[in-house]
Amino acid sequence: LSAGKILVVDDDPQIRRVMKATLVGHGYEVVEARTGEDALEKFPQEMPALVLLDMNMPGMDGLETCRHIRSGSDIPVIILSVRNTEKDKVAALDAGADDYVTKPFGIEELLARIRAAMRRSPSSSEGGPHGYSAPDLEVDFETRKVHANGKDVRLTPKEFETLRYLVAHTGRPVTHREILQAVWGPDYGDEPEYLRVFINQLRKKIEANPAKPKYILTEPWVGYRFAG
Amino acid sequence: MPRVNLSRFLASILAVGGILALYRLVLPVNNTTVALSLLLVVLGVSARWGLAEATVASIVAVLGLNYYFLEPVGTFTIEDPQNWVALIAFLVTAVTASQLSARVRRRAAEAEERRLEIERLYELVQAMMLSGNARRTIREFVQRVVQVFGCEAAAFYYRPGEEFFRSGPESAPVTDHDLLAAAEIDELSVDALRRRATAPVRLGGHPLGAMALVGPLPSDQTLRAIVNLVAITIQKARAIEDASHAEAARQSEVLKSALLDSLAHDIKTPLTSIKAAVTSLLGAAAPADRELLTIINEEADRLNQLAAEVIAMARVEAGKLHLEKFPVTAAELIEAALADLGAVRRGRTINIRLAPGLPRVECDPELVQQVVKQLTENALKYSPEAAPLTISAVRKGEKIVIGVADRGAGIDEDERAHIFDKFFRGRRYRFETKGTGMGLAIAKGIVEAHGEKIWVESEPGQGSAFYFSLPTARRGDS
Q: Is the pTM here over 0.90, yes or no?
């Protein structure tokens, strides 16, 4: 049984070859596309479970392709790019990508990101998760109860909403702007400073060691990621 | 100065004489007819030639009229007082009419002169307008102004370029010093004989230099017009020049940036295949293969690092670092740099000493994080495994100084001066440690792009400490 069908979109044939060999070796089914246009054509026929999308392609680039996919589907998209600046990562996430991996990458890292993106099933993010459970952190989003490191923790409504948003996107980097707009409203988005202070408060409440967080990880200069 | 033309005087006298002879010898008429006919001749002379000729003609006419027609004929005496009145009336009428007509002629001549000068100015401007280059415009000006206005020579001092332009050796009487002095004064200055004029050339208070013309000179008004025109034309040429420079620079920037981008892509694309393939193999490798595959993996990383450094160095050198500044804490910068270092710091002790209550710094955190990372990486590389490292941040006035100190061998004084140079590698380590010699040059480029300083303090045998400064964020930014 296949672990899922992955659409690999890259203009470089060697990269497609490596990806196919590796992903098939790990139990995935692979469909290839050479360009963004090609990908959009294959997408409705193949109905992949995840898309690996090269950022820099001739013709329609990765960002635009991602936006097109997003306009009709919320399946996981991971953007691969040789550029690794904050601006590029934010652009990819803003275009609707679930994650961003810088080329060149180790295959284990990519597989981990693929698994994380696939775990986040599209249906659960709509209504939001019902809860999160790990040995030292339990969150029940229905009763709004949080139990961390053996004690009950009281979160403010905004802290709770932020945590809910991060958990709903477990494993995926979420930009400052995205969190601010989701929790505070559409007028916010340019105050990463404010969010930083806020996240530090949240970490103090749920992390065993706030200086070395285990759950709410910092994506340097981009945003945060909930490591589930 | 109107030149004396003897033939005109002669012709005037002959015309008067002709009328006298005609009436005296051929056609006997009364005296009034003679006087009116002579008046016509005088008017004709004044209209055609000028006041001097007309005056001579009218005196001859009065004398002739008196001698040949007024009683007693054949003498210059006049008996009848009525004839006196007629003679004086004739003289006054002739002279006044001549003056009026001469004044009209002079006005017409002046108008013609102005028209010519304006035409010449126009010709001059047209000759200069064609060039989009200030120097070429001035060179054209000194040549053309001489041709067009019939001067002997012209000279120009171009202040922005500190250059002198001359029409030829005839301009020698105006020295460079004269031109420099003229650029400092406020007004056009013309010498008493109208042989030489100097004037400052400026536009809207913006000094462009000075010009000089060596006679014969056009009128002061025209001189001022020339000065203004040349100022406007040069300024226009400068504007075109600046615009085309800026455009050329922009295009070369765009090209460089596109090349860098494609270089990054072209090197990293095959590396991506290699890295993905080798890490995939490593996952299931037999112990015997593991060592070799690990080498491929590490060398792929090294090539990737090298490509990244080449690109960063090229960006620094092209002045293409685009800073996205916002306020961050020194702690965040250090944390991010250490996280980025990853496995390199494994097993090493790194002490972090932050002065309490540090304000935020205003910088591009992604780039500055690379500086901290580079300094830390170097410190790890060039100090013994057991020796701890210290990363510190303190406030010095309006600056925050971040430092990375090791307890390595230190850096010799003569090497300290070159340590931030591109491709410089310390003697001791040149053949031992991996590296491109670009890391510190890139770090310096990043710090300097922020308008700040990076420096090293070292005591051979005691260790080295690298420091760089960053501005504190303004209040209200955080």
A: no
